[in-house]
TrEMBL record:
Reactions listed under catalytic activity: shikimate + ATP = 3-phosphoshikimate + ADP + H(+)
SUPFAM superfamilies cross-referenced by the UniProt entry: P-loop containing nucleoside triphosphate hydrolases
Alphabetical list of PANTHER family matching this protein: SHIKIMATE KINASE, SHIKIMATE KINASE 1, CHLOROPLASTIC
Keywords annotated in UniProt: Amino-acid biosynthesis, Aromatic amino acid biosynthesis, ATP-binding, Cytoplasm, Kinase, Magnesium, Metal-binding, Nucleotide-binding, Transferase
Name the UniProt record assigns to this protein: Shikimate kinase
Pathway noted in the entry: Metabolic intermediate biosynthesis; chorismate biosynthesis; chorismate from D-erythrose 4-phosphate and phosphoenolpyruvate: step 5/7
GO biological process per UniProt: amino acid biosynthetic process; aromatic amino acid family biosynthetic process; chorismate biosynthetic process
GO cellular component term of the entry, any: cytosol
Organism: Aerococcus viridans
Role according to the record: Catalyzes the specific phosphorylation of the 3-hydroxyl group of shikimic acid using ATP as a cosubstrate.
InterPro entries: P-loop_NTPase, Shikimate/glucono_kinase, Shikimate_kinase/TSH1, Shikimate_kinase_CS
Similarity comment text for this entry: Belongs to the shikimate kinase family.
Cross-referenced Pfam families: SKI
Main location: cytoplasm
Length: 171
């Protein structure tokens, strides 16, 4: 089974994905880490060198590669929060059967990515945008996540292991 997790940055896609893959006994791929390993650069370095549009092209290529190469459909993939910004990525996601949109409030996601005011340097969009601008990105992406996913999970009141268990039972 191929399971893909989408949602805004800080929603818990990576944590949930690791737990879920472990429960299912299948490989787990975090697309951001995969891209960093493949490119030999951090996401921030990629953004610095080729900008967001260049990164989105790499993200599309990697998603396509993963979907084509996944071993008999047995994998959990955690996408980057902005994957839905690219029409071609959304088109690939729509063709899949198990795409889960993990939704939390912007404030909760902001607290996680901002870590109490200490913005992480590895999130170039956070470094380049104010909280208000990030909130606008969050709102703009909601319909894109909904378009690209088969399932929407409100994870506001669920721990990561609970979210993983809900998804496991749905698959």
């Amino acid at each position: 089974m191929l399971i893909i997790l989408t949602g805004f940055m800080g929603v818990g896609k990576t944590t949930v994905g690791r737990i879920l893959a472990n429960k299912l006994g299948v490989p787990f791929v975090d697309m951001d880490y995969y891209i960093e390993a493949r490119q030999g650069q951090t996401i921030a370095e990629i953004f610095d060198q080729i900008g967001e549009s260049g990164f989105r092209l790499i993200e599309y290529q990697v998603l396509r590669e993963l979907l084509e190469a996944e071993e008999n459909g047995r994998m959990v993939i955690s996408t980057g929060g902005g994957i839905v910004e690219t029409t071609e990525c959304r088109q690939l996601l729509v063709q899949q059967d198990q795409v889960f949109y993990l939704q939390d409030t912007f404030e909760t996601s902001w607290q996680r990515i901002n870590r109490g005011g200490l913005i992480q340097n590895d999130r170039p969009l956070v470094n380049a945008n104010s909280k208000k601008q990030m909130a606008a990105k969050y709102e703009r992406r909601i319909p894109l996540y909904e378009e690209a996913s088969n399932y929407r999970l409100d994870v506001r009141r669920m721990a990561a292991h609970e979210t993983a268990e809900v998804i496991r039972k749905m698959c």
